[in-house]
Amino acid sequence: MKLSTVLGLTLLGVLTVIQSSTASTCTVTEYDVDDIATAISVCSKIVLNGISVPPGVTLNLNLKPGTRLTFQGTTTWGFYEWSGPLLNITGTDVEIRGVENHILDGRGSLWWDGKGEHGGKVKPLLFVLHGLQNSVVHDLNITNPPYHAIWIEDSDSVTTYDIFVNSSDGDTLGGHNTDGINVWRSNNVTLERTIVYNQDDCIALKSGTNIVVKNTYCFGGHGLSIGSVGGRDYNIVENVLISDSEIVRSDNGIRIKTVYGATGSVTNVTYEDTILNDINNYGIIIEGDYDINTGGPTGNATGGVPIKHFILRNVVGSVKPSGVNIYVLVKNATDWSWTGINVSGGKKADDCEGIPEDSGILC
Ligand SMILES: *[C@@H]1O[C@H](CO)[C@@H](O)[C@H](O)[C@H]1NC(C)=O
Ligand SMILES: *[C@@H]1O[C@H](CO)[C@@H](O)[C@H](O)[C@H]1NC(C)=O
Ligand SMILES: *[C@@H]1O[C@H](CO)[C@@H](O)[C@H](O)[C@H]1NC(C)=O
Ligand SMILES: *[C@@H]1O[C@H](CO)[C@@H](O)[C@H](O)[C@H]1NC(C)=O
Ligand SMILES: *[C@@H]1O[C@H](CO)[C@@H](O)[C@H](O)[C@H]1NC(C)=O
Ligand SMILES: *[C@@H]1O[C@H](CO)[C@@H](O)[C@H](O)[C@H]1NC(C)=O
Ligand SMILES: *[C@@H]1O[C@H](CO)[C@@H](O)[C@H](O)[C@H]1NC(C)=O
Ligand SMILES: *[C@@H]1O[C@H](CO)[C@@H](O)[C@H](O)[C@H]1NC(C)=O
Q1: Distance CA 22, CA 40 (A)
Q2: 51-71 pLDDT, tens per residue?
Q3: What is the model's pLDDT at position 251?
Q4: Helix residue ranges per DSSP H, 159-275
Q5: What pLDDT does 2 receive?
Q6: Which ligand places an atom closest to the C-alpha of 139?
């Protein structure tokens, strides 16, 4: 039995499902496109229990308004070299969640080769939330994504909470570019209580407006980032509040990257109440010289993506002795206010450029 509904008792067969009320629960226990389509069309509550998705197939769930989707057991995907995504969910007014002990297992080690997106095997993105509107995503455990774990794209009014991405195995097995959550072309997004153990950005906001990121714990990885901004089809980041975060043993703590030679803007961004712990390279790094092609700095900033109205409030903690506490290389920045900053333990940068002159900020 691949598909069943529960109406107090279990009913068998698709026809029975169609005749039953839309308030029923459909449980799908094997990957079958038709069963999944039936479940989506007839049930407002869907449980995917222990699904194994075949290689090279996206688990595509274009949900009807009001659907509650629940992951149960272990969801896996077969190995295939492609860009994915492994899971793609679209919907309005939907709720997506996992129950205790479920796992979305990306089995990343099958793809990992230490090269991430820069060569070697072609690695699929794990989970895309595409065009999600007015929806909630919570209590999801994602493990070992082959590449980025989650993208929220072209979405509006989405809240996530209690999302746990654990890619720690990648530390020793060649995980790279295993971003936790990326947000782009999305507005009114709240990410609460996210925990990420990985080897790239913990959370990266690439474009969008009205974004709140609260209570994040990042371990390993590259820190809480905005960017890179510029060089894509939408290059605005505006009205962002990132608060109550802890970033541990990561390459960076707080990072903003804007793209060299590009246009766009980063406006009204606040990071507050952030604790850094044992950061490897940069406690705070704000750079306007990012080369989108090489994925590294050019050494010269350009001012086409100005960082305006940028507030840091109460950012404290430690950088390793070989790292740098604070580094800034930008052009055309205005209206910065940093207060309660105490990042120590690392070196002082030789040179910081482009800090607005009236801000009183010292590098
Ligand atoms: C995700 O699903 C939506 C809706 O079905 C579709 O429009 C979109 O192209 C899909 N994205 C990918 C990358 O498959
Ligand atoms: C996710 O995993 C963590 C750590 O293993 C566990 O504490 C938590 O209960 C899990 N959450 C769910 C919804 O399964
Ligand atoms: C992450 O997963 C690994 C195994 O894949 C496990 O050993 C480790 O305890 C997990 N981390 C947390 C914080 O649950
Ligand atoms: C989402 O954000 C946009 C742009 O900031 C705003 O115009 C819109 O009203 C917001 N939508 C909701 C539902 O709050
Ligand atoms: C700046 O962003 C914050 C969210 O961090 C928002 O509450 C505030 O209204 C924004 N300010 C302006 C002038 O839009
Ligand atoms: C950086 O700026 C210096 C001096 O303005 C210039 O000589 C050099 O060519 C620039 N480098 C790049 C990569 O644009
Ligand atoms: C500085 O930013 C403004 C927009 O705020 C833009 O019009 C201008 O071209 C930028 N200047 C440089 C040198 O990039
Ligand atoms: C900054 O933090 C360091 C290490 O925690 C501490 O020793 C120092 O007193 C703090 N400085 C200020 C000005 O609070």
Answers
A1: 10
A2: 999 999 999 999 999 999 999
A3: 98
A4: 170-173
A5: 52
A6: 2
CB of 140 sitting under 6 A from ligand 2:
no
CA distance 109 to 107: 6
For residue 228, what pLDDT is reported? 95
Residue in 74, 99, 102, 141 to alter for ligand 2 test, most ligand atoms within 8 A of Cβ:
141
Q: Tokens for 280, please give them.
A: 């490897």
When mean pLDDT is compared across 1-15, 87-101, 187-201, the lowest value belongs to 1-15
Confidence tier at 3 by pLDDT (50, 70, 90)? low
Q: Which ligand is nearest to the CA of 299?
A: 6
What pLDDT shows up at residue 24? 86
pLDDT digits (tens, 9 = 90+) for 9-52: 333 344 334 334 455 899 999 999 999 999 999 999 999 999 99
| Mutate-to-test residue for ligand 1 from 130, 151, 152, highest number of ligand atoms within 8 A of CB | 130
Structural domains in the chain plus CATH codes: 1-49 (no CATH), 50-199 (2.160.20.10), 217-363 (2.160.20.10)
Is residue 222 flagged as an active site residue? yes
| Ligand 7 nearest-atom number relative to CA 303 | 14
d(CA 123, CA 115): 10
Cα 144 from Cα 287, distance rounded (Å): 29
Note whether 129 and 159 are within 8 A (CB): no
Can you tell me the distance from the alpha carbon of 359 to that of 79, in angstroms, rounded to the nearest whole number? Answer: 52
Q: What is the pairing mode between strands 181-184 and 45-49?
A: unpaired
Nearest CA owner, ligand 4 atom 9: 188
Residue bearing the CA closest to ligand 8, atom 13? 342
b vs e for 94-132, b when ≥16 Cβ sit within 10 Å of the residue's Cβ? bbbbbeeebbbbbbbebbbeeebbeeebebbbbbbbbbb
Mean pLDDT, range 167-176, rounded to an integer:
98
- Strands (DSSP E) contained in 21-105 are 25-28, 45-49, 52-53, 59-62, 68-72, 74-77, 87-92, 95-98, 103-105
Decide whether any atom of ligand 7 lies within 6 Å of the 106 Cβ.
Answer: no
Output the six-digit token pair for 82: 């492609």
Q: What pTM did the predictor assign?
A: 0.93
